[in-house]
Amino acid sequence: MTCLVNKRLLTWTVVLFLVFNVTVTVVSSSSTSGHHQPIVCWQAVLQCQADPDCRYAYSQYAQACSSVLTGRRRSCPSHCVSSLVQLNLTAGGPALERCDCARDATCTDAKRAIEPCMPRTNGAGAGGCTEARRECENDAQCAEAVRDYLLHCRGLLGFTGNDREGACTDGCRRVIARMRTMPKARPLDTCVCDGAERNICEYVKASMRTLCYGPRDALYAGSGFFSDDEDDEGDYVEEDYIEEEENMANVCGGNFVLVAMATVFGLTSVL
Q1: Contact 110, 68 (CB under 8 A)
Q2: How many domains does the chain have?
Q3: Domain containing 251: what range?
Q4: Is the pTM of this model over 0.90?
C-alpha cells in the first residue's frame, strides 16, 4: 500500500514538473516572439496569477461579474465594469482582454458574455466619467451647459435655494434635454463612475433617475450599456462597495451622470 502511494505521488510530481516547465517555456517564448501573436487565454491567466496586483484584480472581477458570466443577468452592474477597468490597469490585464480562447468553449462563452461590459474609450461605447467630465470641461458649450445644470438642478444635489431640495424642476429637465444633444455632453450619459469621484457620481446618477424621470422612463431605459437596477451582487465583498450600497439602499440607479461638479465647475460660486 505504501509503495502504491509513493508511486502515485511520484507520478503526479513528474506530471506537475512537466506542466510547469512547458508553461514557463510557452509563456517565455510568447513574450519574446512579438506582439502580433495573441497569447492563449489560459497562459494569460497563469501570468496574471503570478502577479499579486493582477491576481487580486482578477478575483474582484470574477466576483463582481459572476452574474453576467453565468448568464443570470444581461445588464452589466456598475461594479462589474469598474472591476474590469481596474483589471485592465494591471500588468497582466490587457493580455486577458486580447487573449485567444483556442477552441475552449467555456472561455469563448465567458468572453461573449462579458464583451458588452467592456469599458471603451474610443467613442464606440462608454468610458470613465472622470475623462468624460474633463472632455466636457474643455468644451465651452458643454461647460456652460453644466453651469446651467448647477443653477437649475441644485435640488438634485441636496442644496436648498430657489429650487426645492430633492425636486426636479421643468427648468432642470430642459437643461438635461439640451445636454443630451451636445457631442461633448453625451458621454456623461453612459460613462462609468470611476476614481475619486465615484461616490458623488453614483449619487447624482441615482437622484437624476429617481427624481426626474423614474425607473421606467423611455429616455433613460437602456440608454447606457450598464444598469444599476437590481444591482445586488451578494458575492462582491469589497468594503467600499458595501458601504456605498448601504448609503444608497433606498435610491434607484440611473444613467445620466454629471460628476464632481462642486469642486470642478465651481458650484459654490454659482450658489
Answers
A1: no
A2: 2
A3: 129-270
A4: no
